Amino acid sequence: MIIHRVIRKVQRFQGWFGSGAALCLIAGLYIGLVDSPPDYYQGEVVRIMYVHVPLAHTSLFAYIVLSVGSMWYLWKRDPIVDNMCHAVAALGAIFTTLALATGMIWGKPTWNTWWTWDARLTSYSVMLLILISYLMLRTFIDDHEKEARYAAVLAILGLVDLPIIHFSVEWWRTLHQPQSFSMRGVSMSSEILIPLMCMSIGMSLLFSYMLMVRTQLLYLDRLLHAKKGRLLSQFHMSQSDS
Amino acid sequence: MTSLYLRWGGLLIVAVGLSVLTYNHYQQHLSTVSPHQMKEQAPRQEIRLFGMVRGGTLEGKVKAGDATFELMGNDTSVTVHYQGPPPDNLRELKTLILIGKWNPSDNIFEARDIGLITNYGFVIGAYLIGLIPLAIFLFAMSRRVGLLYEEIKESKLYQEE
Amino acid sequence: MTFFNVIRWIVWKDLVIELRSRETMSSMVFFALIVIFIFSFSFSMDQQAAREVIAGIIWVAFAFTGIIGLGKSFSTELQNDCLEALQMVPESKGAIYLGKVVANFLFIFVVEILLFPMFVIFFNLDVVEEISILLLIFFLATVGLSAVGTLFSALTVQIRAREVMLPILLLPMVIPVMIAAVEATKGALNGDPLTMYSQWLELLAIFDVIFTVVSFWLFEFVMDN
Fold first, then answer.
1. Could you state, in order of their start, the residue ranges of all structural domains in chain B?
2. B14 neighbourhood in chain A, CB within 8 Å
3. CA–CA dist C198, C196 (Å, integer)
4. What is the pTM of this model?
């Protein structure tokens, strides 16, 4: 199948992804933390953006990969794609949590509050809830095929729901409190853009690398399980024969 | 497995190097001294002085960027002569950071600019919280993949059927 | 059996079971009454404060009551292997889904109609003029709730810990319904002109259409064994 060929091709470059991620992140950290000047409006706090924005982008990317993979699974019923979906959900949950945590740390000195029911923050946290419920659902089903199918259904439903959640929260917020803080209007100078791009590329590469490692991990886990089970049944059969 | 530990050891060294660089950067460009410390140490080079403008002492053409006032901090106050770009946040009872040189002969701090108040703790916290869990998670996963490979190899499970 | 006949038979079957046993509806009504009491103890309210929070209380009570009804919808099918029988219906699985949605909608909507007078009495609401618009809000929100809830009910009935998983899966998904229903109900109870909150009714209608279509399609994969 085509997806197997693609995975095998990409897997061959796994090491490149890892080292590329390491290089980009080290360069980005050096430029972001040491080399770049503080922002005129935000001061030193702007440096949090260099780690927060890439994390947020990547977690959104993770959800897109999850839903595309889920649709592919429902279409082709390919177990390796299901492994990838399972892996990407766990990674997405971690990246979303970290994006929210760094966002809160940025919000404290900038908006003087850890949390606000901003549309973006709220839809991100709902996305985290959906990802966690996705992972929980998978632990409660014994049959692998059924687990994959149900999880895919949940992921696709979540994909449809997330934009609606975002818009409804945005409407709800504009109704209750006027938009007091906004990131729009803060123009991006090249001093900010260079470390941001570095960290963004590095984080995407790191995410791809982690996705490969985790897919491999889940695959090997399942392989070991299956092989052990088969050996055990062979053993029992030989026992009953003799 | 050895190559895994070697790779992560290398990364750890790079991480330590980066944090040393960051710390140096912070010490050179962002750390501040209080008037009390400044009077004790009497540094020659340019420093960043942190304190509050004392009420009722601000004089001169503030809008034009030429002013004299007293800066309070740790129960010690020092006379400051500010001459630089027109400041937008120089008011009485305002906490700020002044960049300039200490003149011990006539006990006046010659300030040339006003710096931004840094909240570097938040920056460091965000980077640590953002990156360390990722690193730990990735390390645990790679290690487990290595262990699984070894287990499959040793248990002779990976054979032709 | 044609597509619509399957829908009709499933609705009829569920209604007959309910009319004979009265299990689901009575437990839903009683549970909601308890929720109303708990809420009125936990907020000691005057008229003004009631106006602010009553819409939220109404919808929290309705959502939890709805979850009880939705959970029962498919767990009754576990007895005597009725679920397998449903899966063998020689028609597209979507018919089963639509039949179940209609049945669940009827249960929840009737319970809401029964409960709303209680809210009016206990919290001294004045609703005579707005009753038609409130019914429209209840209708739209309940359609949304049962469209998503029926899918999740079918999904959770075949897994472990289904009583826990149904609300965990359902509640994040129906956040837009909750927000829109609470805002619209608040507007209606305050006696605001319709144009001020008609956007929420539109949002509810859009949610209903999208999620009925998507769940109709996904239901095939849930029931396919």
1. 30-115, 119-155
2. 22, 26
3. 6
4. 0.86
